[in-house]
């Protein structure tokens, strides 16, 4: 009896904790509310199953615990019941999977008008690059990385000269504009993680990964690293600020381009290098 | 399944080892140390796994002290925290759970439950243990080498695992990889034994579909392990080459701390595929033996046949097969091709169906049973709750788009601890209470057992259930200190402190359990040969604990399935598998 009540209390307590928990997802700041809806559907379906199974189990313990003279029923199988339960489960699973795959299709389909920006991770800081007036970013390679060129931008690429480079700083984004976030790492795995954005993706040295989103509200958000990257993993932080377009433009105007940052020295070197070949 | 005429029984080809052919020990050394008796090897495996498991338990205390009270304990810094999580994870998953379920329970139970005298290759079986012990010692030695153990996380993802920004880059990672390689060699020797013994050494009448589900679970898990561990083996060898010889299997061109490294052309994601091709089946390598064992615990202690035996067997086999095509659900945000998400989310959620069938059949076995709330039964009930909870949160993480916000948060930590930490440990503990009488001839103390169960079950649930919500909030895993962030309310710190205190309490309860194991060995109530009045063969041995060779002069002959409990008209509420047919054939029972 006591055991049955405790088992039931575990189920009831879990549901109550869920309802009254002060720990819940952060208010969303991007278009990915679909993800939150899919999580809600999943909570409902799994919550019902969880409660039903535990409550049934508690009832069995209450009703069929050993008493003098009780004999268990002999009941090896029940094909019909087993099939119905399997089909019911399959339907519940499909009800979670279908919206999940639907939203995933949106997640991996980048809109054509998304602006590309770049986030680069390294132990243990974040750098950012935005396309310049030509709307394209120049190519990069880790082999180009040096103290004067921390993001490894290709000096010979004319698209790279007007790229806005923010080394180890904060990122600003305009509200309401879709962005494709290109992700790059120069040393180990990192993960550009802003809880309010919902979307995140690992950054892998040797390749460029991406996700896309549209910020829907202004504000300042913490950027954390979500993929273990060594000793100072927990301290690898910065901020991303979502601005109204006018504020964003004002901020952008103050930023330095790659050509400005690297100065004539870089141009000379680039000429020498291409001349050398 | 229920009843087969004796004539049919004799048609099953016998594979008997004559009693005299066994290698009998001639000295104390060959009896207790270099023993070839599977039961002794099982106890050696179990004691070693428990010893290293205690190290992992202490590490979890240290981690929780840091997380619950950041900044209070000056002797724990960021690097040590990473070393603690890495060693805790690796020890618990591989050196404790895998070794205990397969090397411990597999060795003890397979020969006894299928009616064999021993494993088919006893000498190789002995070597298996000694190589495992060597692997454990190499692993433990990393605590004492310069730089300490590796802090790369138990997933050991390159490039960071072998670069200087991660603690243990000098010796720790090299010895970790060496230890894994040794473990796999040792495991392969044992694993081949378990599989061949089940296939070749079953006694007369023990058809595959009469085997207890415990054997089915361990058997299937062993086949999976033999297929999955080679992926980890090659990954370990390749990473060792990257670290020691300067090859670039997993290392692209990179710049570390401003220095251009000599690596180039390798793929970090390749390692992740290899790791999880092993790592996901590994989850089921731990889970399937637990599924099998808990089925038997529920059946015995509810005095009722397991419901839907055939469906249970096929569910084990289906889960084992499916688990090889779901591995990349650990990599949804790894940067692999995004289209993979569609495939792996679908396969992952399909696996929920056979898994749910198993849960239904466990609770349906309780329905109209005669439920004895013994300590093993309590642990079985605790397993069902924690497994259902952890399994359902798996549906969040398996559903690719839901995984995106939750991956790498404390939600994941809570999920896998519930489903492959607490749930299998519930089964391990229940199984020890269940089979300890067979291993020692004495019962474990019941009052201490119930105390142990309630503190462990409720405590572990209070640790891991709220932890999901810290992850839902967005707190990442593998942070020694979440620090200040706008989205983290201060109440989170209070919850973390509560979880840490529960962790200390649950850990303490395990000391009570260890005391019970030691005390009962000398003072426990004598159990007799079959204290639970169970049907399976291990309870029908002529001696308790069983002698070398298990069965004395004659092997048992099996006449029925493993679940003849409460058969109508039978004089007792159980009929052992080796009891010749005397009761009338049941009409309408399972074929």
From TrEMBL, chain A:
Enzyme Commission number(s) of this protein: 7.1.1.9
Domain of life: Bacteria
Domain annotation Cytochrome oxidase subunit II copper A binding: ranges: 112-254
Catalytic activity: 4 Fe(II)-[cytochrome c] + O2 + 8 H(+)(in) = 4 Fe(III)-[cytochrome c] + 2 H2O + 4 H(+)(out)
Annotated keywords: Copper, Electron transport, Membrane, Metal-binding, Respiratory chain, Translocase, Transmembrane, Transmembrane helix, Transport
Membrane topology: Multi-pass membrane protein
Cell location: Membrane
Entries under Pfam families matching the protein: COX2
Cellular compartments per GO CC: membrane
Chain's role: Subunits I and II form the functional core of the enzyme complex. Electrons originating in cytochrome c are transferred via heme a and Cu(A) to the binuclear center formed by heme a3 and Cu(B).
Designated name of the protein: cytochrome-c oxidase
Species assigned in the record: Bradyrhizobium jicamae
From TrEMBL, chain B:
Organism: Bradyrhizobium jicamae
Keyword Membrane: yes
GO CC annotations, alphabetized: membrane
One Pfam family here: COX1
A GO BP annotation: electron transport coupled proton transport
Keywords of this entry: Electron transport, Heme, Iron, Membrane, Metal-binding, Respiratory chain, Transmembrane, Transmembrane helix, Transport
UniProt keyword Repeat, yes or no: no
Family: Belongs to the heme-copper respiratory oxidase family.
Major localization listed first in the record, in broad terms: membrane
GO molecular function: cytochrome-c oxidase activity; heme binding
Cellular localization per UniProt: Membrane
Entry protein name: Cytochrome C oxidase
Transmembrane segments: 40-62, 82-110, 130-151, 171-192, 213-241, 283-300, 312-330, 342-363, 375-398, 410-433, 453-475, 495-519
Gene3D superfamilies attached to this UniProt entry: Cytochrome c oxidase-like, subunit I domain
Topology within the bilayer: Multi-pass membrane protein
Residue ranges annotated for the Cytochrome oxidase subunit I profile domain, each copy included: 23-559
């Amino acid at each position: 009896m006591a055991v049955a009540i405790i088992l039931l209390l575990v189920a009831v307590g879990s549901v109550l904790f869920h309802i009254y928990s002060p720990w819940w997802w952060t208010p969303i700041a991007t278009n990915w509310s679909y993800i939150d809806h899919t999580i809600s559907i999943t909570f409902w379906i799994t919550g019902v199953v969880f409660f039903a199974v535990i409550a049934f189990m508690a009832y069995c313990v209450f009703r069929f615990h050993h008493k003098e003279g009780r004999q268990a029923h002999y009941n090896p199988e029940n094909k019909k019941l087993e099939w119905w339960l399997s089909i019911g489960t399959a339907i519940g699973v499909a009800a979670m999977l279908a919206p999940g795959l639907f939203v995933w299709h949106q997640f991996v389909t980048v809109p054509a008008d998304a602006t590309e920006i770049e986030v680069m991770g390294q132990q243990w800081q974040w750098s950012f690059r935005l396309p310049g007036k030509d709307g394209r970013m120049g190519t990069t390679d880790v082999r180009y990385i040096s103290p004067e060129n921390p993001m490894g931008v290709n000096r010979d690429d004319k698209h790279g000269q007007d790229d806005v480079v923010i080394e180890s700083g904060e990122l600003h984004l305009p509200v309401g504009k879709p962005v494709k976030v290109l992700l790059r790492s120069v040393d180990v795995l990192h993960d550009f993680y802003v809880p309010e954005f919902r979307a995140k993706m690992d950054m892998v040295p040797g390749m460029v990964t991406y996700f896309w989103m549209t910020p829907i509200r202004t504000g300042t958000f913490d950027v954390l690293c979500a993929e273990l990257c060594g000793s100072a993993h927990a301290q690898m932080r910065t901020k991303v600020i979502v601005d109204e377009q006018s504020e964003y433009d004002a901020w952008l105007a103050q930023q330095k381009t790659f050509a400005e940052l690297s100065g004539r020295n870089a141009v000379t070197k680039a000429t020498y290098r291409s001349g050398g070949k | 399944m229920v009843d087969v005429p004796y004539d049919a029984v004799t048609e099953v080809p016998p594979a008997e080892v004559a009693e005299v052919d066994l290698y009998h020990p001639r000295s104390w050394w060959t009896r207790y140390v270099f023993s070839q008796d599977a039961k002794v090897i099982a106890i050696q495996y179990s004691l070693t796994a428990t010893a290293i498991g205690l190290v992992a338990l202490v590490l979890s205390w240290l981690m929780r002290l840091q997380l619950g009270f950041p900044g209070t304990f000056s002797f724990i810094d960021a690097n040590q925290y990473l070393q603690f999580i890495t060693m805790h994870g690796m020890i618990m998953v591989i050196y404790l759970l895998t070794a205990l379920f397969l090397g411990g329970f597999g060795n003890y139970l397979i020969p006894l439950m299928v009616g064999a005298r021993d494993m088919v290759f006893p000498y190789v079986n002995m070597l298996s243990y000694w190589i495992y012990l060597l692997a454990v010692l190499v692993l433990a030695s990393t605590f004492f080498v310069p730089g300490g153990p590796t802090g790369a996380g138990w997933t050991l993802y390159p490039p960071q695992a072998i670069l200087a920004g991660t603690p243990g880059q000098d010796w720790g990672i090299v010895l970790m990889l060496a230890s894994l390689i040794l473990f796999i060699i040792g495991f392969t020797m044992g694993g081949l034994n378990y599989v061949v013994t089940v296939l070749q050494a079953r006694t007369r009448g023990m058809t595959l579909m009469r085997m207890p589900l415990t054997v089915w679970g361990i058997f299937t898990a062993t086949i999976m392990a033999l297929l999955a561990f080679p992926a980890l083996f090659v990954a370990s060898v390749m990473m060792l080459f990257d670290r020691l010889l300067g090859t670039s299997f997993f290392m692209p061109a990179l710049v570390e701390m401003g220095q251009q490294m000599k690596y180039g052309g390798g793929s970090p994601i390749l390692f992740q595929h290899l790791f999880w091709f092993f790592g996901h089946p590994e989850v089921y390598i731990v889970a399937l033996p637990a599924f099998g064992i808990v089925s038997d615990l529920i059946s015995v202690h509810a005095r009722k046949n397991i419901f839907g035996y055939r469906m249970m067997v096929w569910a084990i086999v289906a889960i084992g097969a499916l688990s090889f095509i779901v591995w990349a659900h650990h990599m949804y945000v790894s940067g692999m091709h995004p289209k993979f998400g569609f495939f792996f989310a679908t396969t992952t959620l399909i696996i929920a169906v056979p898994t749910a069938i198993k849960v239904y059949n466990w609770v349906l076995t309780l329905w109209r049973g005669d439920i004895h709330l013994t300590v093993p039964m309590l642990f079985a009930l605790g397993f069902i709750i924690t497994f259902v909870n952890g399994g359902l949160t798996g549906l969040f993480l398996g559903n690719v788009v839901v995984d995106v916000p939750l991956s790498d948060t404390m939600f994941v930590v809570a999920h896998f601890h519930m489903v492959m930490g607490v749930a299998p440990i519930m089964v391990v503990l229940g199984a020890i209470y269940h089979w300890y009488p067979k291993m020692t001839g004495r019962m474990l103390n019941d009052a201490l057992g119930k105390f142990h169960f309630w503190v462990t079950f409720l405590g572990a649930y209070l640790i891991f259930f709220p932890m999901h919500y810290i992850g839902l909030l967005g707190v990442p895993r593998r942070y020694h200190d979440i620090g200040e962030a706008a989205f983290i309310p201060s109440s989170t710190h209070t919850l973390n402190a509560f979880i840490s205190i529960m962790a200390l309490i649950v850990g303490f309860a395990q000391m009570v359990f260890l005391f019970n194991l030691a005390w009962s060995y000398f003072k426990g109530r004598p159990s007799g040969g079959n204290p639970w009045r169970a049907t399976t063969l291990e309870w029908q041995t002529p001696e308790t604990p069983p002698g070398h060779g298990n069965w004395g002069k004659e092997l048992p002959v099996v006449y029925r399935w493993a679940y003849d409990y409460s058969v109508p008209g039978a004089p007792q509420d159980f009929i052992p598998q080796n009891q010749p047919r005397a009761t009338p054939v049941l009409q309408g029972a399972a074929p």
